[in-house]
User: What shape does this take?
Amino acid sequence: MTKSGKSRRSGGRKKALEKSLAPTRKPNYRQLRHPFAPQKIFSEDEINNIHETALKVLEELGIKVLLPEARDIFERAGARVQDEMAFIGRDIVSTSLNNAPNSIKLCAANPQRALTYEDGALIFSPGAGCPNATDRKRGRRPGDLNSYIETLKLHQSFDVIHKLGPSAEPQDVPTYLRHYATMQAQMEFSDKPMFVYARGSKQTEQSFEMIRIALNLSEEDWNKGVWGTTVINSNSPRMLDKPMAQGIIDFARARQMSIITPFCLAGAMAPITVSGALTLQHAEALAGIALAQLVNSGAPVSYGGFASNVDMKSGSPAFGTPEHIKMQIGSGQLARHINLPWRSAAGSASNIADAQGATENISGVWGALMANATLTIHAAGWLEGGLTFGYEKFITDIEALQTVAELCKKTEATDSEIGFDAIKHVDPGGHFFATQHTMERYSTEFYSPIVSDLSNNGSWIKSGSKTATERATGIWESTLQNYVQPTTGHAVPERLANFIEKRTSEGGAPIME
Amino acid sequence: MTKSGKSRRSGGRKKALEKSLAPTRKPNYRQLRHPFAPQKIFSEDEINNIHETALKVLEELGIKVLLPEARDIFERAGARVQDEMAFIGRDIVSTSLNNAPNSIKLCAANPQRALTYEDGALIFSPGAGCPNATDRKRGRRPGDLNSYIETLKLHQSFDVIHKLGPSAEPQDVPTYLRHYATMQAQMEFSDKPMFVYARGSKQTEQSFEMIRIALNLSEEDWNKGVWGTTVINSNSPRMLDKPMAQGIIDFARARQMSIITPFCLAGAMAPITVSGALTLQHAEALAGIALAQLVNSGAPVSYGGFASNVDMKSGSPAFGTPEHIKMQIGSGQLARHINLPWRSAAGSASNIADAQGATENISGVWGALMANATLTIHAAGWLEGGLTFGYEKFITDIEALQTVAELCKKTEATDSEIGFDAIKHVDPGGHFFATQHTMERYSTEFYSPIVSDLSNNGSWIKSGSKTATERATGIWESTLQNYVQPTTGHAVPERLANFIEKRTSEGGAPIME
Assistant: This one.
C-alpha cells in the first residue's frame, strides 16, 4: 500500500550522492556458509523409518550391479551376490558410513577458491550436463567446444559460482578425445574446483594426470585434497551401470570425490510419494557410498539427492515444484542422519528464461537453503530439465544466487550502524540522503543488481521495454568481452600439448558404455 | 547431471494412467500455518538494542502528529506535547503493548474463509494500492471500477489469496463516492476478509455500516471479530499525518484492525542501514500501536514492516533485494519481541511479468516465510513498486504462492506411504507407472501447475513458443470467464441500494486530506 507513488521517486538524492567520491562495493561471495537453520519435513522417527527401509531394500531386494569388479568388491566384503544382484547387509553400510569423511577439501588452481565440502558450507555450481546451448543471439544449437569454453568463462566471471560443471557438452569433439579438450579448457579458462566426467578408467586416469601436469602439481600437492569431482547417477530403480560403478571405483582409488546421486523421479523411476522416492534414493546412494569405501576406506564421497516428480500432463521431469522442495528438505535430513555432506539441485524445466524459469529455479535454490545442501548443482542456466544451457538464463539466475549470497553476511546492529544521530538530525517528513550516516555508506551498503531494471515505466519504455531476459543478452556478451583469464591458465596449453598430442596419436581413450 | 535426456520423456506412462478413473486433487490452501521455523539476522541483544533505541527515538526525538485529536490523546496519556511533536514515554508504549491482542479473528462473509490473525498463521493478500492496471490484451491504463471488480474476481478464484486488497484503484469513481463502489464490490464479488481504506471518519463509518447492511449482520455478529482491516502508513521519518492518525482512531473505536506500517526505504526516508531503517520503522509502528490502544484498550492492531532499500541507480524503491529480505527477517524478530502478529510484503519493481518480476516477488515471499510474517501483502500482481497491478503477473505469482502453500501440508512417511512393496515389485531399471502404489495416487499426489509448461522443446515450439507471461493471459481470461459469484454476494446490491442512493444524494463523504 503506498499513498505517494511519486514522492518516492524523488530526485534530490542524486546531487547529494555525487558530492562524494565513493568507494566501490566488493562483496565476498566465496566460501559461503548457510545463513538459515536446516528445516524438517519428517520427524526423527520418520527419518529412521526411511533409513531402515532403505537398509532393508539393500539387504532383501538388492541392487543390480552390472560391473563384475564391483560385484566382486561387494562379495568380498560379505554381501550376497546372485547373478547380477548384490544384497548388501547393514553392517557393510554402517562400516562404510563410519569410514566416509564428513569434511573434504576441494582444491583449486587458485587456493583462494578452494572449498571445504562439509555440512554448513553453501556451494553453487552451474547448470550442467546439457547437450544443447541457447542464447538470444545464436538460437538453440547442439553444444560445442566454443559454447563449453564460453560457459566456463561465464562461470569464472561470477564468484557466486563456486565450482565448475560441464554446462554445454562439446559434441563437436569426438568422445574418445573429449576429455582432453574439457580438462584443458577448465584449467586454461578458470581457476575454480573442477568437474571430471567418469566415462571409463582410462579417461578418468588421463584426466587426473592432466590436472597434475597442467597445474604442475607435486605428489604432495595432489594429495592435499580433491582436485576432481564427478557425479555418479545410479539407474533408478536399483541399478548401478558399468561406467558409474567404474567411476566410483576409479575416483575412490585416486581419492577424488564421487557425488553419489540417484536421480529419483517420483511417479516414474521411483515411488510416487516423497517418502517412497527418498527411500529408494537413500538405498541407492548408500550402495554407492559403500562401494567407494570398500574400494578405499576414507575415500571422499558425497551423498546426493536429486529427486523430483514428473509432470502428470507431459510425463517430463519437473523442478522447483513443492514435491522437489520437500524432497530437498527430506534429503538434507537423511544426509545429516548419516552425517555426510551432500548435494542437491535446483534447475528448471522451462524452455526459456521467463517467469516460469525463474520461479522454478529460485524455488529449488530456496529449497536447497531450507535443506542446507552443501552443494547445489544446476543453480544457474539450466533449461528444459537439463537438455539446454541458457546464457540469458544463467544471468537471470545469477541475480537470485547473489541475492542469497548477500544473506550470508552478518547484519550489524551496533549503535553506529543504527544511527540514532542520523535519525535525530533528520526532521519529521525529511530525508536521509545527505546525512553523514548515508554518505559514508551509500555506495557500499546495498547489493547492486546486475540485470534488474528499477527505472520507472516511462524510462523503461524509452530504453526499449526490454524484459530481464532481453537485457541479459548484453550482460553475458559484456561478461565474455571483459572476461579475464586467470594467471594459472596461461601456461596450461603449453604444459598439456605433448601429453594431448601423444595420447591423441595413440587413439585417445574410449568412453565406457 | 543426466545421462539419458530422452528416456526421461517416456510415453508408456500415459496409457497406464488412463486405465483408471482418477479422483480429482482438491488441495486446501485456506488457513495456512507457517511450515518453517522463523529465522534470525540479529542476536537477542541486537534486537533489544533496536527496541531500546526506538523507545529513545519516541521519548527524546518524538514524532510529529498532525491531527490535534491524536496529540490530545497522547497528551492525556502523559506524553509531552510541544507544537505538533509528541514525545511518547516508554511506559505508554509498554502498557499499550500489554493491551494489544496477539490473536485476532478476521471475519468473512463466508465463515470458512475466516482467518485467525496470529503468530504462526500464513496469510497472503494480493498486490494492492495500484493506481494503474495492465494486461497483455488491453495494455497499461489507469485503474477503474471495471479493473477493480475484475481483480476482485481473480482474488476470489484462488484460495491461496486469503484476504482482499484494493489491487487496482477505481479512479473513474469520484473519491467522495468511491467507498460505496469498493465496499459493495468486495461483498458482491467475494466472500473473503475485506480491506477498508482509512480516508476520513465519515468514509470509514459508512464503510462499516455498509458491511453490517450488506451482510445483514446483527450487533452480535459484528462484535464477533474484525470485518474490516486497513493499512496505516506513517510518513517516515517520524510523522503521522491527519488521515492516518484519524484512521487509527476510527478503527480502534470500532474495534476493527489497523495494520500500522511505516514504509521505511533505507537510504531515502529512513537510515541507510538495515538496523537503522528497522529502528525507525519500529519507533513509528510503536507510536501508532500506542495511539490505537490509548483510544480503545484491546483494539485489534497489527505490527507492520514494509522496509526495503532504494535502488542506487534510479532512486526507486527496490523489492526482493537482500536488504528487503533482511528487513523482513529483522521485522519478524521485532514483532515477536513485542509479541504481536505482523504484516510483511513481497512485490516487485519490475515493469513487466518477466524473470526479474518473478525473482523479486519470490524472494520477498521466501523472505516472509523466513520471517514468519502473519500476513504478506502484495504477494501477487504487484509491478513497478506498486504503481501497476499486472493481470499476468498475478497469475505467475499465484504459481509461486501455491508452491509455498503445498509445503504447509504434513508429508507422511508411514510404511504405506513409503511403499516397500512397490519397490519390491519393480525390477531394477524398470518403472513405477503401473504399480498399485502409483495408481492409487497419480491423480492426487502432485501439485498441478497452472501456468508452468513442462512440455519438451518441440511441443513447446509447436504451441507457439509462448513465455509463461503469454500463457498467463489465457489463464486470467478463463479465470474471469469461469468465475463463480459467492452466494453471499447475490443480495448485496439490493441491500445496499437505498443506503448508497441516500448517501450519494447527500453528497457522499469527502476524503480527509
About this structure: The longest strand of chain A covers residues 228-232. Chain A is about 45% helix and 10% strand. The domain at 80-91+94-408+493-505 of chain A is CATH 3.20.20.480 (TIM Barrel). Residues 1-12 of chain A have pLDDT under 50 and may be disordered.
